[in-house]
């Protein structure tokens, strides 16, 4: 469980860190092999050089705009914990988080709340709770996108990706169950005390139990926005805008490789399939994004394999390098460190 002064990924227990790194590295190598096997390197380089990078600049602008909207939405999720958090600090926290995700999968989920807690003097556990809320919102948005695919694409989607429908159902059930559980704990703190904290008190020392209770309650504070219905519309609008910008980012990138004729519907399908690759825990989605994106173009739209892989490689590189540089700027500018902050609950 996330502690109030969390250790950085690099300072995690050595055994756990090594296992996590080994799994991530293995997945990266596996998906890169799947994506690049049988590719003609010379043809791939030629196609990448021939891309129109002005369209890539437009793609990156859409990506940064989506991060800006995500930062704005985060401010609404955090507002019950602390009012008036500046957009600049919210954006810095988001970009630092993405930078860490590019180094080690999911490291940004810790770095991001840690960063905002140091800049705005609020509990790390509460900030982490809002990250959980955000991931739940993103998951339901993705599931909605999957449900709408038959309206925009009537090709061999399930023939090419037969696991997509069943995976969507499983994710829906698991996410909904988790959300209901967390909401119940937040709304009925007496249930949390009775069924979670009190049993822990039977096996934990008094001091540890008290600390655990503080952390759990601080974490649940990340869901306090649910008690402010007036913010629901803004949060929903921001979520829709984030996904629209993702779509626009994907669509304009197609033009860089002469694939604009595939149309906006193809961009929706490509966004959906590539989002699955992004969700797989590899550093910065390296390998998994390449494999899912290129395979979607090849199987669903009969794009030349080298061209499809060139598209995946360049779009990934632009996002990876650009986001890392922006995150690194804020990391250095704000003198972000992992020195433990003052304990705050």
Residues in β-strands, percent = under 5%
Radius of gyration of CA atoms, rounded to a whole number: 21 Å
Shape: globular
What oligomerization state is this entry in?
A: single chain
How would you sum up this structure, described in words?
The protein has 14 helices and no strands. The model is unreliable at 1-11 and 338-345 (pLDDT under 50). It has one domain. The radius of gyration is 21 Å and the shape is globular. The protein has 345 residues and is mainly alpha-helical.
Q: Keywords, please?
A:
14 helices, 345 residues, mainly alpha
Give a quick rundown of the structure:
The chain has 345 residues and is mainly alpha-helical.
Indicate the topology.
Blueprint: H1 14-36, H2 41-49, H3 53-78, H4 87-103, H5 108-120, H6 124-152, H7 157-160, H8 164-187, H9 189-203, H10 206-220, H11 232-256, H12 263-279, H13 288-301, H14 305-333
Helix pairs in contact: 1-13, 2-14, 3-4, 3-11, 3-14, 4-5, 4-14, 5-6, 6-8, 6-10, 6-12, 8-9, 9-10, 11-12, 12-13, 13-14
